[in-house]
Specification:
This protein is α/β, with parallel strands linked by helices and 442 residues long. The protein has three domains: 170 residues, 3-Layer(aba) Sandwich (Rossmann fold); 165 residues, Dihydrodipicolinate Reductase, domain 2, CATH 3.30.360.10; 86 residues, 2-Layer Sandwich (Alpha-Beta Plaits), CATH 3.30.70.260. Helix content is 37%, strand content 26%. Strands 7, 8, 9, 10, 11, 12, 13, 14, 15, 16 and 17 form an eleven-stranded mixed β-sheet that branches. Strand 10 and strand 11 form a beta hairpin. Helix 5 runs parallel beside helix 10 and helix 14 runs antiparallel to helix 15.
Length: 442
């Protein structure tokens, strides 16, 4: 019987995800080794604090505070970069790729900012860069787009890409809890990033949407060109009023193709979806991604998007692909091999203008409760060719202010931005108008 080759693995970071990867590789080692035809050795882990108590058992001899020692160790075949951030993580990743190593990551911010450089370095160094865990948690959506649907051009990709926000919105809806109470529960369960703005302000979703846009269209979209809104301004009343109108609220990342495929637009914002749609009923920490291809049509992929196990599962899947790449049995499809193809696909694609991005809208206004105010608002909207489809006035308040909930007929982002700008100028409109998009995707 031939002896199995030994694949040595180093981890950079042993937090929630790193701990999960360590735990599950140790627990499932025999099954993994049978499937892959190789022995797996977890040989070294880089951490910040050697004395910190951890949820997994790692010997002191395997720990180091120098992540570069893992990137430059000639005996290590696969480096799992699970530290987060974009500064030191970039340095470690570039070093490992220059050394011809396999690098596996869950770091969407790093890929979003430096993806082109990292893929080029992997190609030049003879290594590979795997990042399935960066988008969708337990959904293998990157493999779906790059391998399973390779024959398609994608006119629309959208989805729930942040399990934390979906958990918060779900509990607000189901239990009539305020945003703050639900956020505290998410913190206690470990669902929220250390930098909470990444989740709550939509940046985590934006990073993932940029990666999907590149995979689908071959174009890196700069984050400054992505309109990003989070869920922090959504009230319990918004959720209840949306329910009265037949909708649920979800934070979506959307990549739409416009102008007959000549341009794309990437955006992130809370969105009203009709309650009978599949996407509207993806709740809790689950993610869902809808992919519409010109050949296959539309399909929705659903799985866990937050938590240790879902992300660790995706990382270990990439480790398995890394082993296959090292053994050549069979060689996986790797992005750096397709870099020129992706560049050619994206070379003629531009970013869509705001006028190209159309839809219906939900508008919440706090106004002075007196005659003539609605006429003022209607005039501003008419001036920008925005037509009101429905109106709700939920209640009157003792300080002579009222809330108005308006929905519009079909309009576009440019008209709505101009409308919001001019509504802010009205003396009888208090606080900034709050806008949500209404989508009618299948």
């Amino acid at each position: 019987m031939s002896k199995k080759p030994v694949i040595k693995i180093g981890l950079v970071g042993l937090g929630v995800v790193g701990g999960g990867v360590w735990k599950h590789i140790q627990q499932n080692r025999l099954a993994l080794e049978r499937r892959l035809g190789a022995r797996l050795q977890l040989v070294k882990v880089a951490v910040q604090d050697l004395k910190k108590k951890r949820s997994v058992k790692v010997s002191r001899a395997q720990l180091t505070t120098d992540p570069m020692s893992i990137a430059n160790d000639p005996d290590i075949d696969i480096v799992c970069e699970l530290m987060g951030g974009t500064s030191l993580a970039r340095k470690v990743t570039l070093a490992a790729l220059k050394n011809g190593k396999i690098v596996v990551t869950a770091n969407k911010a790093l890929i979003c900012k430096y993806g082109a450089q990292l893929f080029e370095t992997a190609r030049n160094g003879g290594g590979h860069y795997f990042f399935e865990a960066s988008v969708g948690g337990g959904i293998p959506i990157i493999k779906v787009i790059r391998e399973g649907l390779v024959a398609n051009r994608f006119n629309l990709i959208y989805g729930i890409l942040n399990g934390t926000c979906n958990y918060i919105l779900t509990r607000m809806e189901r239990e009539s809890l305020t945003f703050d109470k639900t956020l505290n529960a998410a913190r206690e369960l470990g669902y929220v990033e250390a930098d909470e703005s990444l989740d709550l302000e939509g940046w985590d979703t934006a990073h993932k949407a940029v990666i999907l846009a590149y995979l689908a269209h071959g174009k890196w979209v700069n984050l400054k060109d992505v309109p990003v809104e989070g869920i922090g301004n959504i009230t319990l009343e918004d959720i209840q009023w949306a329910d009265e109108l037949g909708f649920k609220i979800k934070l979506l990342g959307i990549i739409s193709q416009n102008n007959k495929g000549k341009s794309i637009f990437v955006r992130v914002h809370p969105t009203l979806i009709r309650k009978d749609k599949i996407m509207a009923n993806v709740d809790g920490v689950y993610n869902a991604v809808s992919v519409s291809g010109d050949i296959v049509g539309s399909g929705i992929h659903i799985g866990r998007g937050a938590g240790q196990d879902a992300t660790a599962s995706a990382v270990i899947g990439d480790v398995a692909d890394g082993v296959s790449a090292l053994l050549g049995t069979p060689p996986p499809v790797v992005l750096e091999d397709d870099a020129e193809l992706y560049a050619s696909l994206g070379s003629d694609i531009e970013l869509s203008s705001l006028e190209d991005v159309t839809g219906q809208y939900y508008l919440r206004l706090s106004v002075t409760d007196k005659p003539g105010v609605l006429a003022e608002i209607s005039t501003v909207m008419a001036d920008h060719d925005v037509s009101i489809a429905s109106m709700i006035q939920p209640q009157e308040s003792s300080n002579q202010q009222a809330t108005l909930i308006l929905t519009t007929h079909q309009s576009n982002e440019k008209r709505m931005q101009d409308t919001i700008r001019d509504l802010k100028k009205l003396k009888n409109v208090h606080r900034s108008p709050f806008l949500l998009r209404i989508v009618n995707f299948d």
